[in-house]
Design the sequence.
């Protein structure tokens, strides 16, 4: 019978006897082994470093929120017949986590280079620093073969920037060992968080650029009626450039193309020239005259009329064939608001907001120009008095002809057979052509300034009793009260099939 060396048997117990032939008990073999290692592998260390910390758990939270609840073991969303880098490994949370942390720790030099390029391009280090780079680019444009030496110059600059270095004998000695290369920043450090912040901003900038260019995609993939026109212009320009290619000065062309970004980002251009161009495009009115008139030599009303015609040409270009062959008219809608003095600030709506007006555009309350500055009060439809006109009216006088309830998304019923043009939406009357000539002649001031008509957003301001229309409200109206109106227009067309179906 075997004994148990590792068990203390009480003296008052009786051992059970067993038959050695039927139930033999063999002693266990003792095996010596080393203790388990406490240092995990790099992959396990990256996966195990998920201690609950606001910084260290950030990457894990981001990755977990990007993946679905369950991923197949052989997940490969990108199908390819050949082995590509994008399909080398299947979609996996552990692999993505490890690679994301490695990428964040090692992407710092890329954003360092991005910051240096931005400093040069945006004139952040002074005009001398940027001028040196412009002169270097001009030198390469004049001697284009010197571009082949740029890699050599870059490598020499990197090695010279670390000079002086210890001699080879000193570097290989035991007393003066070579300085080790700095490892990537650890997760949670300041440099690691800076890299993560740069990745965040780069993703936002890339998304903004994608959203800016995505509206042009339908014109290139035959999803728009303008694709054939663009294709024709592309082929014609290609055939036109073929015989004149030898005549184009490539050095001057590349110099102008390369220096143009520096000119656009110069502080003088940003402070003086671009505001004038923006004023010319938006038709902004400044004190003492019109910026677009000073730039283009036209008056404010003529420039606004030109912009309305340009918008109408764009709308006409989007019309379908059924619209051109049908009778078309315009319907109008009036938006009414009242001023309420108070501590709140006025709301802002730019001209870009009107370019995005569609058939379901909701203008909301308090939208319009902030002409009286912040902290003066608010424009809103809720400020209208019980005796005032409704927030939305369909008659020019603002009282009659409403013809039923007008919803907040600028939609109302039409006569049988008439329908809204589907390719365009409501447009504000930024010229203010609805203001009667009698009201203008009775309020003429003779100052030479444009005080009548509508402002840049289409609003016409009146006094407390909806009289004396002006494009800019008077200061005295702040105390007595003031109102404003805006005219919206949209085209409709007659479709006989709608009458038959009704």
Sequence:
């Amino acid at each position: 019978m075997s004994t148990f060396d590792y068990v203390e048997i009480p003296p008052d117990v009786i051992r059970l006897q067993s038959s050695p032939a039927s139930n033999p008990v063999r002693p266990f073999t003792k095996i010596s082994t080393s203790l388990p290692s406490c240092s995990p592998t790099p992959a396990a260390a990256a996966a195990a470093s998920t201690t609950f910390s606001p910084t260290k758990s950030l990457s894990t939270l981001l990755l977990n929120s990007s993946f679905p609840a369950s991923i197949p073991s052989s997940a490969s969303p990108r199908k390819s017949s050949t082995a590509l880098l994008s399909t080398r490994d299947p979609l996996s949370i552990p692999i993505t986590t490890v690679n994301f942390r490695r990428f964040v720790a090692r992407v710092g030099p890329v954003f360092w280079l991005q910051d240096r390029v931005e400093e040069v391009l945006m004139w952040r280090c002074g005009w001398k620093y940027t001028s040196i780079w412009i002169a270097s680019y001009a030198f390469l444009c004049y001697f284009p073969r010197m571009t082949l030496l740029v890699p050599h110059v870059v490598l020499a600059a990197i090695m010279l920037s670390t000079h002086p270095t210890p001699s080879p004998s000193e570097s290989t000695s035991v007393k003066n060992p070579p300085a080790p290369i700095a490892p990537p920043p650890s997760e949670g450090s300041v440099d690691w968080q800076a890299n993560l912040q740069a990745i965040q901003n780069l993703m936002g900038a890339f998304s903004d650029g994608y959203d800016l260019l995505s509206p042009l995609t339908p014109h290139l993939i035959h999803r728009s009626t303008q694709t054939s026109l663009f294709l024709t212009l592309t082929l014609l320009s290609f055939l036109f450039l073929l015989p004149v290619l030898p005549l184009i000065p490539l050095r001057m062309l590349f110099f102008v193309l390369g220096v143009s970004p520096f000119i656009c980002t110069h502080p003088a251009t940003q402070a003086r020239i671009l505001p004038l161009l923006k004023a010319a495009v938006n038709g902004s009115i400044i004190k003492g005259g019109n910026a677009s008139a000073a730039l283009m030599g036209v008056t404010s009303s003529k420039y606004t009329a030109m912009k309305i015609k340009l918008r109408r040409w764009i709308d006409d270009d989007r019309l379908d064939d059924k619209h051109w062959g049908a009778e078309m008219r315009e319907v109008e809608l009036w938006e009414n608001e009242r001023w309420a003095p108070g501590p709140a600030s006025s709301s802002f709506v730019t001209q870009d907001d009107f370019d995005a007006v569609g058939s379901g555009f909701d203008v909301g309350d308090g939208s319009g120009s902030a002409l009286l500055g912040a902290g003066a009060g608010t424009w809103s439809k809720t400020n209208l008095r019980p005796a005032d006109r409704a927030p939305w009216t369909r008659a020019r006088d603002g009282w009659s002809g409403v013809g039923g309830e007008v919803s907040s998304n600028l939609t109302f019923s039409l006569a049988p057979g008439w329908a809204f043009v589907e390719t365009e939406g409501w447009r504000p009357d930024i010229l203010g052509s609805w203001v009667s000539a009698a009201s203008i002649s009775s309020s003429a001031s003779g100052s030479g300034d444009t005080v009548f008509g509508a402002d840049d957003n289409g609003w016409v301001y009146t006094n407390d009793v909806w009289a004396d229309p002006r494009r800019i409200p008077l200061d005295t109206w702040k105390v007595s009260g003031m109102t404003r109106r805006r005219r919206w227009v949209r085209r409709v067309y007659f479709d006989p099939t709608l009458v038959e179906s009704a």
Observations:
- The chain has a mean pLDDT of 74.
- The CA atoms of residues 385 and 476 lie 20 Å apart.
- The chain has 18 helices and nine strands.
- Strands lie at 285-286, 289-290, 328-341, 377-380, 392-393, 418-420, 427-428, 459-463, 482-494.
